[in-house]
Each structure stands twice: as C-alpha cells, then as structure tokens.
C-alpha cells in the first residue's frame, strides 16, 4: 500500500495570507503546505481519501490523481470537509454517489453544509454522497481493514485511522492509554504538530510529539498539520530525533 501527503498544513495553509515571515516567503516548495489530507492507494490500486479540505481540487490536479473510491473524514472542521463539493467531476464520471465514512456527528454536519447533495430531487449539477456512520471499531472496505483511532481535539472526538502497520492522526491534543495500545511499535506513525513551542489547546506541539515518539516507539514518525510557526523544513527536519521527519506535500511512502 502507499500513502501520499496531499497536504500537510494547518487550517490557514502555508504561506499564510499577508504573512512575511521566513517560512511564508520561502522559495523551497517543501515550505508550501496545503490543508492536511492524504491519499491511500490499496494493494488493489483503489483510492481512499482521508479528509477533503478547501485545497482538494488543486491537490488532485497537482498530484495527477483522477479517482477517489471512498472518503474517510476525521472530523467536521471546514479545513477537513469543505472541499467535498469539488468531488462532483469524480461523482459524475462514476455515475455513483461518493461513499463517505465518518462519525454520526460528522455526517449530520455534512448534511447541514451540503443540503443540496441530499435532496430527493437534486439539481443536475449537484454532488451526491452516500454516508456511512462508523464507530470506534475496525471495519472492512475495498478489501482493506481500517481501524479508527479515537483522539481528542480540544473538546471534540476525532478519528485517526490505522492501515496495516501505519497510523494517521491529525488534529489531536490528547490520546488515551486505551487508544495508544493501537499505536505501539508501528512501522509508520503520522501525527499532527502545529508548532515548535508554546502549548496549544487543540493540537500537539513538538515536545508532545517527541514524547509520544519515545513512548510509542514507531520505526518512523512523520509530522503533519504544520503551521509556519514550526520553522523552515530543511532546518527543522535535520534537528529532529533520528526516525522523525517533517512530512511535506507530495511525499509518498510505502507500507
């Protein structure tokens, strides 16, 4: 299987509008970050998208991705769902409703934000979604076992997802001991890291991620959901402990 980072930035993206810091003005493409999303390619070449934010259209075009078989949503914040309308060309091409897997709570929010996708008589150009409510237990889809990882993001529960021996977690500031059991001794762990210093009420910062790396002991750990406050990619990546890496848009890993 493969995972490609379509976006590794926070809700504002990088560069941030109007910011002139060294990260936002960097000419290194690794310092330019779309909103966080990944594409999983299964062993059968099926496509599983995790989150669909406002940069979805550009992410698909730049990465020459032409299909999504199903979408998994971590939670309902706009930087993770508001691009769903841009799935229309894929839906029209397949002639089928787009399957979306998420919390019941998230499904309700999708219906509120895209009511035109669920009406009995739809406008001909409207998208069409097929919602599947999932719980905190493994499920199978596209011949792939997917294990949700329930984490806390400020005051709401958010799902991360585990495939084989890889786990992807974004928008978290707390993981319970029960959920940590699912994350021990992985080949690849991907965690959000919004900035280098100063505790954040809704996201891990670098000290939190380093502590989790030591506790969970994955073979490799990649940082995502990165803001311009973390620093320049080429400098900060070299300063991380061995086995830890800054992810960047377009990075692809096999697992």
UniProtKB/TrEMBL annotation:
<protein>
    <submittedName>
        <fullName>MBL fold metallo-hydrolase</fullName>
    </submittedName>
</protein>
<feature type="domain" description="Metallo-beta-lactamase">
    <location>
        <begin position="46"/>
        <end position="226"/>
    </location>
</feature>
<dbReference type="InterPro" id="IPR036866">
    <property type="entry name" value="RibonucZ/Hydroxyglut_hydro"/>
</dbReference>
<dbReference type="InterPro" id="IPR001279">
    <property type="entry name" value="Metallo-B-lactamas"/>
</dbReference>
<dbReference type="Pfam" id="PF12706">
    <property type="entry name" value="Lactamase_B_2"/>
</dbReference>
